[in-house]
Structure formats: C-alpha cells, structure tokens
Amino acid sequence: MKALTASEMREVDRLTTERHGISQAQLMEAAGRSAADAIWRLVAGRDNARVCVICGKGNNGGDGFVVARLLKDEEVPIRVLLFGRPEDVRGEAAASLARWRDAGNPIDIVNDASDWSRLWPEVASSAVIVDALLGTGLRGAPTGAIAQAISDVNHLSRNATAPAPALILAVDTPSGLASDGEPSPGPVLYAHRTVTFTAPKIGQLISQQANGCGALEVVSIGSPASLVEEVGKGGLRWIDPSEFVSLPLVRPWSSHKGLFGHVLLIAGSPGKSGAAILAGSGALRAGAGLVTVATSDPVQSILASAHPEYMTEALETTANGAISPNNLRSGNFARIAQGKTVVAIGPGLGQSPDSQEFVASLVRESPLPLILDADALNAFAGRAHLLRDRNSPFLAITPHPGEMARLLSITSAEVEADRVRHAREAAKNWNAHVILKGFHTLIASPDGNLFVNTSGNPGLAKGGSGDVLTGILAALLAQFPGDLFRALALGVYLHGIAADLLAAGNQDASGILASEVAQHVPIAREWLLQELRFRA
Q1: What is the pLDDT of residue 535?
Q2: What is the per-residue pLDDT across 353-375, written as a single tens digit (0 to 9) for each?
Q3: Who's near 480: CB < 8 A, 6+ residues apart?
Q4: Angle CA(286)–CA(288)–CA(293) in degrees, nearest 5?
Q5: How many CB atoms lie within 10 A of CB 501?
Q6: Residues 423-427: contacts with CB within 8 Å, 24+ apart?
Q7: What DSSP element (H or E) covers 433?
Q8: How does residue 164 score in pLDDT terms, banded at 50, 70 and 90?
Q9: 238, 269, 291: which is the final residue of a domain?
Q10: In which band, very low, low, confident or very high, does the pLDDT at 424 lie, cut at 50, 70 and 90?
Q11: Do residue 229 and residue 322 come from a single domain?
Q12: What is the Cα–Cα distance from 78 to 76, expressed in whole angstroms?
C-alpha cells in the first residue's frame, strides 16, 4: 500500500466523496468506529475500564467525539476534554460534538494550562487515554495547554517507573507528528498504539519521531484502495498483506522439494557456529526446498548435528580457522555452488583478512543471486563501490545502521538522521537491493522504489535475529525468483510477524529468542494466508 502525504490524504477524502458518494460525515463516523473498536478490544471485561478522550478543535477532535459516543453506547465510563471553546469547533467536527452534547453528555473545557493541571490527575488515572488533539493537518508546533498535555502524557508512556494506563491510543496520528516525513516542529505525543485511516502517512513510517506511533494499525473507512494507488506519488510503500497477493504462497498438492530452490549459506567460524545454525533454521522454516550450509572445516561437525534437515559442506580454512580464498582458486566453491539457487554469505563468518578476501572475490565472480549480511558486509567497509563490480545480476545487502555507516564511511548517527536517502542512494549507486534494518526496516531497490516494514517489536533487538532474517530472505528468493524485490519485503514482514505472534502469546518481548522467531515463521506465513483469504 502506498504511503501518503497530508495533502494526498485530503485528496483521497475529497475524491471518495466526489466519485463514490461517501460523505465526510460518514468518513468521520467510520474513523471513530475503528478507533473505538480498537479500544473496546482492550477494555471489555476490565474492572477499571475508564477512558479519557482529549480532543482538539479540528477534525481529529471530531473523530474523538465519535469514539467517545460509541464507547458510551457500550456503557464504558467516558470523560471528554475539549482544548478550546465549543463555538470554535467547525464543520463535521462541530456536528460530531453536537451529537455528543445533545445526548446529555458533558465535556470539560481546557482553555489554558491551569485547566489542564486541574484535570490531569483524573486523566492520568484512566485505563485508556485517547489522543484526538492534533491530526495530519498540523500547522506549526503545539503550544500552551496542548504542549503541556503532550508532555504529561509522554511522562506516562515513556517513563517505565511511572504508573501508566493500559493504553495510550492516538487517533489517526500522534499529536505533533509531522505527516510528510520532515522533522516535527515541536513536541510529539508518544502513543502505545495509533489507529490511522485509509493509508499510512509518510511521517508515520520514516520520520525520526515515527516511534511516537507505537504499534501502527491502518484501517479502511470507505475510501477504495484504488484511490490510494492513484493519488500517492512518492514511491514509498507500506508493507501489508495486500502486497503479496501476486505471490504463489499456497503450494499445490503435487509439490516437491525441487520446486522451491536450493539455498547455499556460507556462514560460521570457530566460536560463531550459532549464527550459521540460526541462518540455516531460518531458511528451513521459511520454506526452501533444500538448504546447504558451507562453513569452515573446524565447525562443520557442530553444524551438521544441529539440524538433520540441512546439508553441510566444509570449506578449506587457514591456520586460524578462517575461510581461505583458495576455495575459489581450487574449484571447491564452484563444486559446492553447483545446482544452488541463491547464495547468502556472512552470519558468524568472522572478520579475518582471509575471510574478507574470500567474500570479496566470491561477490565479484559468482553468477548466482547473492545476499550479504553481517561479517560479509565488513569486507566492503569503506570500499562499497566494489559491490557494483560483480558478475551476479542480483545483490541484496542487509546492514544495520552501524554496518551501513562503515560501508558509507560516515557515522551511525548520520545514517539514522536520513535513513531513506542513504538507503535509496546506496541502492542506486551499488545496483543492489538495500535492506536497512532497524525501527521500521527499509527495503530499497536500485530503481528508487522503497518498502517500509512496521511488523516486529523490541523482542527482535537480540543477537541472532539478523542471522535468522538472512536465512528467511534466502529461502524466499529461492522460492519466488519472478519477483525478488517483493520476496525480500515478504521476508522482512514475516520475520516481524513471527516476533509479534510470540509477543502476543502472553510473554514479555524481551525474552523472545531468535530461534523461537525462526520456529514461528510457518505460523506467520499461515497468519498471512488467513489475512489474504479474509480480505479477498
């Protein structure tokens, strides 16, 4: 799905009314219902189900009044605060406010910081705080009582020691977040969850304050998906299940292992055999027909005993256990690579000069599709232009910000300051697909197209997660050679969904293991299939 700017979103809304007869009032009602449903799923059956909705004067506040009315209909205890005078509320928001008040429901007026300070203790003790202050039409930095409200709510959402509500939910977008990806001009409210409407906004995906959204949920409120595709011009796509409709995800009953590719992983070294095992596990669980792990001779037996489902090959090593460049000169690698579909290099490989020479030579000479991760990337630190000088028509690299910084000879902070630009320029300059890992992983293609992934959670911030991802990516490239860019997006998405399913299973995300993520990839793939069937 395309991500939209604020002006593009307004155009989609306008065309929805003009072409399809869905009024702005109907869109607001549907938006409020979607947010109310997300809250209802949490508060139903809870002893403390009190909800406080804090509303601004614009359409975002109008959405908030709908949320309040629908939850009140379900007998949820509701408190509504309006920042500003009721007579200053205009348009559909005014109609939504009137519908709330005409039913005899009260509102608390916040005219200044003193009003907010008086009401804050009750807001803070709510089970749910709903942010409907400022929407995508933000103009300038929040000031006055709204700025103070954002600061106070953030004290709850960002301070682990503070007593916190069960949920802080932003309606459409967190207040203060700039919609188009530019730096926000002032404070941004940090929500646990954001329910946004029709399409994600560019700022929710790529801005430096995008983590203010928390978990991002995109819901349809009546605008056809075709309008989003028509209006969006930025070449930036959010990964959701609909992106994978064209891939043959369901296997025919007549399937055999030869249909799903043969992955070759070059990974592992003394003391780092676990990385190779995890990458192999990721490839197996992601559905590769065959998997071979080639590793340094001293650790082959360790890898062979870890998974009976993959095969292993020994690579000639130097005296210090590093993979020798002689594997290419002797023909040993050519023998191992025969019949393989894709080669993934790097997990646990080590950074000895011999191993790095082997990697550089392999990338230059191999005709097979390649994935470079971890230690294989370090072979090109400061000389990434050599990535373009290769025989293979397809290369994907998977750097985290530190590895990307070494490739570009800049700092990690510089990478993080403009992730999109660096990913796109690197993909073009190196004629490679760049998977820049981190919060909202980016997948950039040489032609300038960009996927942004929002699946996953902090449980992936653990050693081994990247190794599993490398195996998953290799397996999916092997299975879907007709659309390699989309196969990469699928791999990143399933990796995150597997972690999300684990976190949903009543465990804290901090305890998720990379091996468990690999094990859950088939469950994530089934989840995706169910989503596609539901939407069909």
Answers
A1: 78
A2: 999 999 999 999 999 999 999 99
A3: 247, 248, 486, 487, 490
A4: 100
A5: 18
A6: 423/450, 424/448, 424/450, 426/384
A7: strand 433-436
A8: low
A9: 238
A10: very high
A11: no
A12: 6
Position 512 scores a pLDDT of: 95
Q: Is the pLDDT of residue 506 over 80?
A: no
Predicted local confidence at residue 159, as pLDDT:
66
Strands (DSSP E) contained in 190-300 are: 193-197, 215-219, 236-238, 262-266, 290-296
Shared domain for 330 and 410, answered yes or no, is yes
Q: Is the per-residue pLDDT at 507 higher than 80?
A: no
Range 392-421 burial, b when 16+ CB lie within 10 A, else e = bebbbbbbbbebbbbbbeeeeeebbeebbe
Are 341 and 417 in a shared domain? yes
d(CA 498, CA 281): 14
Choose among 52, 40, 30, 148: nearest CA to 96: 30
Judge contact between 352 and 322, C-beta under 8 A.
yes
pLDDT tens digits, 212-246 = 999 999 999 999 999 999 999 988 999 999 999 99
Structure tokens at 355: 């191993």
Q: Are residues 87 and 123 in the same domain?
A: yes
> Tokens 């094990």 identify what position?
519
Q: What is the CATH classification number for the domain harbouring 206?
A: 3.40.50.10260
Band of the pLDDT at 165, cuts 50, 70, 90?
A: confident
530 shares its domain with 490: yes
> What number of residues does the chain have?
536
| 8 A C-beta contact, residue 371 and residue 473 | yes
**Total domain count for the chain?**
2
Q: Is residue 312 part of a domain?
A: yes
Are 312 and 356 part of one and the same domain? yes
- 145, 169 in Cβ contact below 8 A? no
pLDDT confidence band for 139 (50 / 70 / 90): confident
DSSP H or E run through 313: strand 311-315
pTM over 0.90: yes
